[in-house]
TrEMBL record:
Residues 3-234 form the Starch synthase catalytic domain. SUPFAM superfamilies: UDP-Glycosyltransferase/glycogen phosphorylase. It catalyses: [(1->4)-alpha-D-glucosyl](n) + ADP-alpha-D-glucose = [(1->4)-alpha-D-glucosyl](n+1) + ADP + H(+). One of its GO terms (biological process) is glycogen biosynthetic process. Keywords: Glycogen biosynthesis, Glycosyltransferase, Transferase. One of its GO terms (cellular component) is cytosol. Its EC number is 2.4.1.21. This is Glycogen synthase. Pfam families: Glyco_transf_5, Glycos_transf_1. HAMAP family: Glycogen_synth (MF_00484). It comes from Paenirhodobacter hankyongi. It is an enzyme of class 2 (transferase).
Length: 478
């Protein structure tokens, strides 16, 4: 088996704040089937150290970004995990990146340390194990490829951009603390408008760059999506690869999901029992005449949440209902509560996140709304497809890549799996919801689309094969 070191700030089942953790956690098993053995390097947060323990130390550095750093090796759910135990950096009561007072002041140092440890392990190996590829994720892992390049170490690296909105941008005052050589502070290094960009450092240094969908790779070359790094993406276009994320189709399987009344394509009628249960759980009209839409999302402008108050009156008037699960900006949470107060029998809202409830929502919903302004890949629409919860999505990123919009051409070909709208504004979303109501009223056509959606295969096999092919191309002599 060929060896890859994956370096990331979070991974299921150890720690999760978003979709990054799902991807990092799922890839090792998927890559194993392609001949690549993964070791995962993650920060030693308290929960991680509790899970890993401190029995097998494989690496240590005494003066490690302000204190002792040690790496412990363990196995979690069949995956070899190396936890970077540095209590002065990671032993904190809050979340991985912040606490109740906001982001940690030393996040740049914390994740530079993660990248440093990864680069040293790649350069020197640990106890007879040495990777042939380093796979870094987002800005938190991005300095691993950079350090390797600055040191002249001939180990190929891949940087995956899950969301370019987060760039690890800090003042040059941190140059020494991040152990960055001054001679690389230039436009082809880590300099970014007079500051340091940890993400740019990795983008310029990595052997290859991937994004989590082909469409997102194309979008990042444009200013409205690239957020200042579009020129870097253009310059490195030949090293760019868009590889779609997948989902764990054993966890997300309506036929075996313990959280729902089981259903499948041959037993689609049982989905109706989940719909009735969801209406009851949210206290909505049990005789809802139109489609029941669900929204499982962070409540932020990126997710298009501000568009919903402007279209909900029309949707409710046409017979629709809405269940919301999420948290985010205070104004957005208040807007969702206000909608629920205005339509108590049509709109239900739960502020927060509940993984099990999300399964029930996909099982019971007729449609899932994803009106994002940008979406690198998106997993919500993939869960919706799997559970016959028809996606209503904006035509961006991975949403565009994974949902076949209902048009005269796709309907004539019996190919549509959802509704895709453009541009991302209230008028387009309103029209999409009107189309949803119209399609739902045709029960025969609707059920056919639901079945097509459920048959779509968005597991990890294709994506893992693409990653493996990329890794192979980097380690094989040209």
């Amino acid at each position: 088996m060929k060896r890859v070191l994956s370096v990331a700030s979070e991974a299921v089942p150890l720690v999760k704040t978003g979709g990054l953790a799902d991807v990092v956690g799922a890839l090792p098993a998927a890559l194993a089937g392609q001949g690549w053995h993964t070791r995962l390097l993650v920060p030693g947060y308290p929960a991680v150290m509790t899970r890993i323990g401190r029995r097998d130390m494989v690496w240590a550095e005494e003066d490690f970004f302000g204190g002792l750093g040690e790496v412990y090796l363990g196995t979690v759910d069949g995956v070899e995990v190396m936890a970077l135990d540095a209590p002065h950096l990671f032993d904190r009561a809050g979340g991985p990146y912040s606490d109740a007072h906001g982001d940690y002041w030393d996040n740049a140092e914390r994740f530079a340390a993660l990248g440093w440890a990864a680069a040293v392990i790649a350069r020197d190996g640990v106890e007879g194990w040495k990777p042939e590829i380093v796979h870094a994720h987002d800005w938190q892992g991005a300095l691993a490829p950079a350090y390797l390049r600055y040191w002249g170490v001939d180990v190929p690296s891949v940087l995956t951009i899950h969301n370019i909105a987060f760039q690890g941008r800090v003042s040059t005052a941190k140059m020494g603390a991040l152990r960055l050589p001054h001679e690389w502070f230039h436009p082809d290094g880590y300099e970014f408008w007079g500051d340091i960009s940890m993400l740019k450092a990795g983008m310029m240094a990595a052997s290859a760059i991937t994004t989590v969908s082909p469409r997102y790779a194309e979008e990042l070359m444009r200013g409205e999506f690239g957020l200042g790094l579009d020129g870097v993406i253009q310059a490195r276009a030949t090293a760019m690869h868009g590889i779609l994320n997948g989902i764990d189709q054993t966890v997300w399987d309506p036929a075996t999901d313990p959280a729902v009344v089981p259903f499948s394509v041959p037993r689609l009628a049982a989905k109706g029992r989940n719909r009735a249960a969801l209406l009851a759980e949210f206290g909505l009209d049990p005789d809802l005449p139109g489609p029941l839409a669900v929204l499982v999302s962070r409540l932020t402008p990126q997710k298009g949440i501000d568009l919903l108050p402007r279209v909900i009156d029309d949707f409710v008037r046409l017979g629709g209902g809405l269940c919301v699960l999420g948290s985010g900006d205070g104004w957005a949470e208040q807007e969702m509560r206000a909608i629920a107060e205005r339509y108590p029998d049509r709109v239900g809202v739960r502020i927060g996140y509940d993984e099990v409830l999300s399964h029930r929502m996909f099982a019971g919903g007729d449609a899932v709304l994803v009106p994002s302004r940008f979406e690198p890949c998106g997993l919500t629409q993939l869960y919706g497809l799997r559970y016959g919860c028809v996606p209503v999505v904006s035509a961006v990123g991975g949403l565009f890549d994974t949902v076949i919009g209902a048009t005269p051409a796709t309907e004539a070909a019996n190919a549509a799996t959802g509704i895709v709208f453009h541009p991302v504004d209230a008028l387009a979303l309103q029209q999409a919801l009107r189309k949803l109501v119209s399609l739902y009223q045709d029960s025969k056509g609707w059920n056919a689309m639901v079945r097509r959606a459920m048959k779509a295969d968005w597991g990890w096999d294709r994506s893992a094969a693409a990653y493996a092919a990329l890794f192979d191309s980097l380690v094989q002599p040209s």
